[in-house]
Structures are given as structure tokens and as C-alpha cells.
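Problem 3 from the worked examples.
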Amino acid sequence: MDPSTLYALVGFILAGYAVIANDSVQTLGTFIASNHKEFKWYWLWLAASSVLVATLVYGWVTNNGDISYGRLDSIPEIQIQWYHAAAPAVLVLLTRLGIPVSTTFLVLSTFASTFVLEKMLTKSVIGYGLAAMVAYITWMVLAHFINEKFNEVKQEHRKYWRSFQWFSTGFLWFSWLSHDMANIAVYLPREMPLNLLVLTIVMLVAWLAYIFYHKGSKIQEIVLEKTGSRFMRSATVIDLVYAFLLVYFKGVNNIPMSTTWVFVGLLTGRELAIATVHRETYHFGYVFPLIGKDFLKMMIGLGVSVGLVLMIHNFFQ
């Protein structure tokens, strides 16, 4: 095996783990939190795996073997070097510390030009701001009708909300995968052969099993500490708003963006709205440290990503 192929294999495996262990909690975190007491982990895993397989196969068939859904059009296919494999290794380390790092910045930035990196950053910043604004408006309205600090869904209605949540999670999971598969596909041929597609599916399904078995692992704390995220009605609304935001940005252009920033922006706007409506019981003194901690972790991840990219462009290339 030549060095470039070895680096591509290592990067592919590490990026696959990082995408599932770090990024997928954005989409599956509320699903895990609100269902793990009702269902065995392997039923949740099978449901998520089914959507993953369908998404990858559909992308592979309709995009001439490209599972990135066109997200790599602005990033040329190049020979993989050792520093490309090092990027997801750093990401895995930060993931183990519970830091919500943008896989897009840390992985794709090592392949992209500084011009494309600037476009990725701009789109992600807009994503954070728009998600926060949309979430704030949405939950300002919802908070007048439901109190998400409590699970107020009547027992006879829960089966309907459960079904609705599973549907919304599937929709979100598909929307998110069509964005973030680029972070793995960048290590693979753009026209992927069938055997490589099967290998990719097997690896990602295996990582999913690990995540569901451990109930989301360390990064799940970002979801669990938010108001009502364990409740299926709240989880359903979060998933739907997030999914429609991703669908919107998917239609804007093919430039990759940080879905992590969109997700954190959504949770930020939601928490601020709930605190605004329920000032007497939910104080801003609790909210600001919470969202500030998430924002600081994002900035740490961005700083590491930019530092790594500058090092690669200025010293190794």
C-alpha cells in the first residue's frame, strides 16, 4: 500500500468516527435523549442505520457515485498527505473532551483553498445567526402555549407524538447526512465504486452502534443540558426547525458549511426565547453562561481548525 492510500484510509476511518461521534449528536441527540428509556438501544440504532443506508445509496445512484451530494464541487480531488489524516485525529481528540468542533472546518479546510475556507466560514456564521433568529421567533410563539420545562403531553397523545418524532428525526437525519457526508467523502474517489460504498456503509453503521450503545457519548451533554430536550414533543420541534434550516442552506449553494454552528445557533435562540417568556422561573443568569460556554467551545474548535489550516498552507504545502 502506497503512503497516499494509507493516509486516505486512516483519514477516512477517523473522519467517519468524528462525524458520527461528534456531529451526528446534533441530529440524533434529542432522539436518543427522549427515547432511550422506552426502546432498547439497538432498535434506535436500526432506525438510524436504515436512513443512513438509504441516504448513501440514493446519493451514490443519483450523483454518479458521489455520496457528498455535490458538496465537494468547490474542492478539487488531490493526493492525500499525512496532514490530511492528522486533521480528523485532532478532531477525535477534541470530541473526547466534549468540544463541539466543526468537522467541516477541521477536515475540509485542510483540502480547501483559503478562498473556499473564507466562503465556508461566511456561510457558517450566517447559518449561526439565522438559526438563532429563526429559533428565537419560533419559540417566542411556542413558549406562550407550551412550557418546555415540563413534559405536559397527555398519555393518550404520546403515541402520536412518538410517531411524529421518529418521522421528523428521519427527515433531519437525511438532510444532515446530505451536508456532512462531504467530510468523509473527501478521502474517497469522487466516483466511488460499489465495494467502497459498502465499506463506507459498514463502517458508519458500526460507529452508530457504538454511539447508540453509549447514549450519545460525551458530546451528548450539549443536548441534555438544554431545556426540555429529553421530551419528545420538544425534540420533535427542534428536529423539524433544524431540518428545514439545513434544507434551506442546501439550496443556497454547494459550498460546505458547519452544521454544528447552525445547531448551536438554534439552541441559543431557543434558550433565549424560553427565558424571555418565562422570566419568573427561568432567568437569563442561567441562560447566558450556558450559551456562552457553547460559543466558547465553538471558538476553540474554530481556532484549532484555522491554526491547522494555516500551518498546512504555510509550512507543509
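Problem 4, a separate protein:
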Amino acid sequence: MRSLLALEHVDVGFIPANVLYARLSLPQSQYDTALQKKLLFRQVLDRVTAIPGVVSAAATTSSPLYTWTWTTAFGRGEAQPKDRNTALILCSEGYFETLERVLLAGRLLTRSDVDSARRVAIVNQTFAREHFNHRDPTGQEIRFTDFETLPDWPREPYFEIIGVVRDAKNRGLEEAPRPEVYLPYTLTGAGSTGILVRSLVNPDSIFANIRREVGAVDPNIALVDAGTVQHDLDRHYYAGPQFLFLSMCGFATVGFVLVVVGLFSVISCSVASQTHEIGIRMALGAQPASILRMTLTTGFRLLAAGIFIGLSASYGLTRLLASQIWGVSTTDPWTFGGVATIVVTVGLAACFLPARRATRVDPMVALRYE
């Protein structure tokens, strides 16, 4: 339960509600150049943003929460890394507004930047920290050697950083954000591009309108891999832990019922076997409160023994759950303490009824009891 709650309260770095994404499947050999793609997506975005209920829309090569394109990025004067160390998204203006990303420094992409394929870049916090430490990254220059092999990539390799945005998840929900860079999508015609749309209403209700507007631009374009960001979160990141949580709850409930029934039965049996002893105690002047305390003490000893054995076994077996737990230690003291407290509380409640029955034993009847 603690792990599921931790997942559901992870800060993803943007607002996922009411955001729809879709990839555009383009006719082969028809939109291969950067200019062709720019003209196509400009028409698509203008039409989509005019749909009632749409707040903003943007072109992008990746949808949250996972960036698939990775590149080698480094600043002017830095040594070239040996591996692909940076996530990269090609997008249009409006991308950050659509996801409601937070700008920390500088500015965001403008329509002029995108239409002119200007050599500018936005970076996230992690990229700025790893490459520039405490220096202001705006105005610094970076390059991407992997993309310089593309025939339509700008010949001047360096891009100016114009803004820094707050980190957002780009390696799934459980991993920390990796360095990430955002460039105008009009720089190259290579790769697959889609759209992100933020609406005031349920995104599913306007999907037909989006499909119609895209078809009006080119009826040969299909929308594929469409969905909402919130649905992706629920399906890919929350569904597994929720199923595990419900399964564990089922087993825990059965175990809990066995604790209550077992304690009630054992204490009832103990009271029945001590009826004669209880009668003698009461005949000699024992008060009902002392009989109640004696019976509850017996139950508490059983509880204490069970809790000690249970916690010891649980501590040794937690490594088997390590792969299923996130955001909380497998030996979390609050969890262990909470479970022990619940078992003690419910266990003593289960002991109370037979203990109360013991205080009502008639001494004369008890003395004749065999």
C-alpha cells in the first residue's frame, strides 16, 4: 500500500490530465523533407487548436513519460562523451505549454524559432546541472554529433541554449529524470512525429474532431498509437502495483481473519478449561477486573509471541518483495510498527469477549465444574 501511494504521488514534472497524444502515420516518400513536414504540421496544428475545447497543441517526436531518442550531447569546450548521454525531443512551440512544464530560466521556443529552424535548444535541470554546474546555461552552446550524420542537419553544429525547464520524467515513473534537450522539429525531416493536445474536456471526446481535421489536411494520413497520458499512467505504471496491492490485501484479509478467529477460539478454550480455577479465585474474593486482566494477559502473551515470530520471519523474507516495492524500504519501520499495532488492537478485541465471559462465572457453579 505504501509503495502504491508513493507511485501515485510521484511528481512527473507536468500536468497529465486532459492531454492526448497521437502519432501521424505519413504516406511513404511524401513528407520526407523538413520543409514538407513543417508545412504539414503547421496546417495540422492550426486546425487542431481551432477545435472547441482545445487549449493548445504541439508537434513532438516523443510522448510522456518515456523519451526514446537518445544522443551524444556536449558543450563547447567539453570532451565528447563515448556514449549517448542525453534524451532528445524535436518539438514545436507550444510543447511546454501543452504539458504545463515550468520554465526556470530564459525563454521557450517561439513560432519564429520553429518556422525558421533556428539553432536553439531548451534543456532540463539535470542537463544544466551536469554540464554547467552552477553556471547559467542560457547563452551556452552545445552540439549533437549523432545527428550531424543526417543529410539535412545544419552544417553549423552548435546550438544556443535559450531556456531551462523543470525536470520531467523521461525514463518511466520510477527512475530519476535523465539529461534532456528540446530542439525545433523543423531541423530535419527524419524520424516519426506526432501531436500532443491539451483540452478543457475529456480528450477522448474530441479525438474524432482531431481525426477529421487531420484528414482535411491529407486524407492519407492516419492517427496511430493514440491515447491519453493519464490512461498510459494508469495502464503501464499503476495497474501492476494496484493488482499486487489487491492480491496482497486478499491474502492479508484471510490471515487477519485467522488471527481473530484463532485468538478467540484459544482464549475461549482457555477460559473454559480454567472455569474451576476462576471460581476458586472469585470465591476467595478476586474482583472481576483482576479476572479480566488475567484472561487478557494470556491472550496478549499469545499475541506477543506471534508478532515476534511474524516480524522476524517478515524481516528475513522482505528481499523476496524487493522487486515489487518502490518508494519505501522493504524493512520500513512504520509499516512493521503499523502492522504490529493493528494485530495487537484487533487481537485484544478478539480476546475481550471470552475474558468478559470469565468475569461472569458464578463461583458456586464453577466450584462444582469438572
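Solution to problem 4. The first helix runs from residue 2 to 8. The CA atoms of residues 1 and 246 lie 9 Å apart.
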